[in-house]
Amino acid sequence: MNKKIFYGAAIWLLGSSVLFAQESTVEEKVNELEEVVISDAKIKLKRTESGKVITKITSQELERSQGQSAAMILNRVAGIEINGSDSNAGQNLGYYVRGSRNRQVVIRIDGITVSDPSSSAGDFDLRLLAVNQIKEIEILKGASSTLYGSGASAAVINITTKNAGKSAIAANFSTSIGTNQSQEDQDYDAREFFNYAAIHGTLGRFDYQASFGNQYTDGLSAVEAEGAKSDPFSKYNVLAKIGYTFSNRFKVQVLGNLDKYRADFDNGGLIDGENRSESRQLRIGSNWKYTYANEKGSINFINSYAVLDREIDSDFPTVYDSKIHTFDLYNTYNFNDVLHTVIGVNGSNSDFSLQNIPFGEDSLRETINSDDADFDIVDPYLNVVYTSDFGLNINAGARLNIHSAYGEQVVYNFNPSYTYSFGNNYIKGLASYSTAYITPSLFQLYDTAFASGNPDLDPESSTTIEGGIELSHQKKARVSVVYFNRAIDDMIIFDSTTFSNINANDEVEVDGIEVEVGTKFFGDKLSVNANYTYTNIDKLTDNIRIPEHKINASLGYAFGEKTFTSLSYQYNTKRTDTDFSNVDPVTFAPTPVELDAFGVLDFYINHKVGKHLVLFGGVNNITNEDYQEIFGFNTRGRNVKIGLELNF
How far, CA to CA in Å, does 567 sit from each of 36, 394, 555, 557? Predict the structure, then answer.
């Protein structure tokens, strides 16, 4: 415990002496921190005009995250806990944002909501993503159903993939090799490999991009048990984009991607096993944009069709197949740089089927049919942003959710903010009241294979209240403090006594505080940032694996123009979990357990050699901290990696 407090306090106190900010890159010039945001209203807004709580993960930060997963990167954001991100690479992930669960977080890629209709929560599996293909990420916290539909109750994670460069042809290649070992196994064998290659360019009106990435990881067992065998994880990602600019006002882009992974996993309950899961996503889509001649707005159409397959090879073999078609048609218009409007309609069709071996039989049989497990959603919506020249900003909107199984429901938001500017500084106060509406997933409604389905489930509804203040100094330093309160009615929970999904009888409420601070100084060579999250878990009836207090802090330093180093630290307080190897003999409820607090310290360095080559390396969990994210499962001990990146 002493070393946890020491490392956490050292970095935190260092940052507390100044206002923290984003880390600088090796060759980056002084610029404004996160000046423009898009997730707020689907249009570009200056940060001073936005009253939403938005965190932006830039391309520079992603470039310094070589060899890390999307879950690891998101786990450093205030208010977010991606449980399982530091465990075995194939570990199932829990998305806990402001006390929420997976199904209350929406993930979008290039403007389209992605999900898996066959999963119990209907959520998207972050393990499918390749970080090398991502340009930037914006995280919009709070209820955002007005713009982003059912499910956007706690947060929206907007992911933008890379586009083609301006030259006729360019290429990128990166590779890394590292260890993948637990705290007890410190033999430093090469067990983790990442590779990525991309070619892209622009030829007149035509632009193109194609990339391939793969990962192979071995050496670490999923379950923490004596003599347990390692559980390897492998995946590959293929992405292709083709764009054509018909004129200065009209552009079309089509894309296709294939993501696939294979993961071995154990039985849980501290028992080793020889099980395997395979998951695949094949997705095609297009993006059409017409800009008005006066450049005050645009008509946008984005659509995506995805086929997702999952196969579980275990004592209970199961095959899942699902399809989802999503579209978003919307018009943006800016009236005199004061009134910005977005009006549109968003729709989706989802279905899934499931095969398993029913009790008493010995072969796979379809037990859930896609003709039954199917629904449609069509949502017209309107959002208006008012930005005055005296500092007052108002963001308001409404959406009519039209669901084939649940009829109609209205959600809305009202988000005023006020910014007082003085010189290159500003102070902003914000407030927000938003509602959200979450329909049950197809699995929660129609699952008969595991008897958890409940067609009588009611949708969840929630309200979120936010209030906060943000201070920016010289466009280089910023501090923000935000209070949030979420209240959920009819929350869908799993009843461990009946093994089915039910609606909670009582309202579920949670509140908390998020603090983000940062700056760059010493000629922008030294950068420090940090965030702190307090979640009032005592209010939650289900607070499994959610820390009450969480701190992230990082310090970066650029040695000249070629070398950059960083030191980062994360601290989580104690959390509750459940022991499924020890259940009540009458109710079959698992025994509650407590997971110890932990702190993890990481180091990273990169060095540019000439114009085209970058060498990088890092050490994760420097102190070899021994902890668990999930009871009975391993986490990564001290590990090292080295790699290189080539750009032409």
Answer: 27, 39, 5, 9
Ranges assigned E (strand) in 389-525: 392-403, 407-422, 425-438, 460-473, 477-489, 492-495, 500-503, 508-521
Instruction: State the residue range of the domain holding 429.
Output: 2-647
Tell me: the pLDDT tens digits for 443-462? 888 887 777 888 899 999 99
Tokens of 396: 């308001």
Domain count, the chain: 1
Query: Rounded to whole angstroms, how far apart are CA atoms 545 and 561?
Result: 42
The CATH code of the domain that includes 458 is 2.40.170.20
Dist. CA 162–CA 136, nearest whole Å = 8
Distances (CA, A) of 87 to 180, 445, 635: 10, 31, 4
Q: What is the value of pTM for the model shown?
A: 0.91
Which pLDDT tens digit goes with each residue over 122-164? Answer: 899 999 999 999 999 999 999 899 999 988 999 999 999 998 9
The span from the CA of 321 to the CA of 305, in Å, is 14
DSSP codes, 448-477: -SSS---TTPPPEEEEEEEEEEEEEETTTE
Residues 32 and 43: their CA atoms lie apart, in Å, by: 19
Distance CA 598, CA 535 (A): 17
pLDDT attached to residue 15: 35
Confidence of residue 521 (pLDDT cuts 50, 70, 90): confident
Q: What is the largest CA-CA distance in the chain?
A: 76
